[in-house]
Amino acid sequence: MLGSGIIKGMVETARNFVGSYIDPARLTTVEYPEERLLPKENARQFPFLLHDGLDPDAGLRCVACQICEKECPPQCILIVKDPVKKPDALGKMQFQPKVFNIDISVCMSCQICVEVCPFDAIKMDTEFELARTDRFGGLLLTKRELTKSNTHFQKIHPIDAAIVDGRLAADKAKAEAKARAAANAAASTPPQNS
Ligand code: SF4
Ligand code: SF4
Description:
Layout: H1 4-19, E1 47-51, H2 67-71, E2 77-87, E3 93-103, H3 112-116, E4 122-124, E5 140-141, H4 143-146, E6 147-149, H5 150-156, H6 158-188
Parallel strand pairs: 1-6
Antiparallel strand pairs: 1-4, 2-3, 3-5
Helix pairs in contact: 5-6
Bound molecules: iron/sulfur cluster (2 copies).
């Protein structure tokens, strides 16, 4: 029958409207900003950079490989590599970005930067209250504003964070075992006579 879909939709809306007075679980909206819903685990807004440990500079996971910058469809990431290597959270010498900016007025939240990053250094944040009074510079987020701790990642995406933490711990254990094996091999090699 013509219009039956519209009638079905209106019946469903009326059912939910009346039902919400009886069953609070049917209340699907809240009075924002006084009330807020917790972001869902799979919510994504804009990217942020991760750091391990307490120091955002020393613990920054990003090694300025620039893969995300090249792959970002609207080209809203700008990275300038620092030519001087610095020790990372594990004491390994790594490059870092001197500049890492994301223009979130251009970013389309596609998450491609997250998917291409080989170092789990960039993830999607759930923060959405990003309105600024500065129209021209306010939405260009700098390295300082983008960098957040792994604890933040564990809080907003606990399932993903547990997978990443497990993977990084396994990689670290493998690297340590390799270094120990190399040290043992070096110690057991007899010195060469000259
Ligand atoms: S989410 Fe997409 S558009 Fe935004 S910075 Fe990452 S790759 Fe670029
Ligand atoms: S966020 Fe990842 S992909 Fe982008 S530059 Fe840093 S390490 Fe490379």
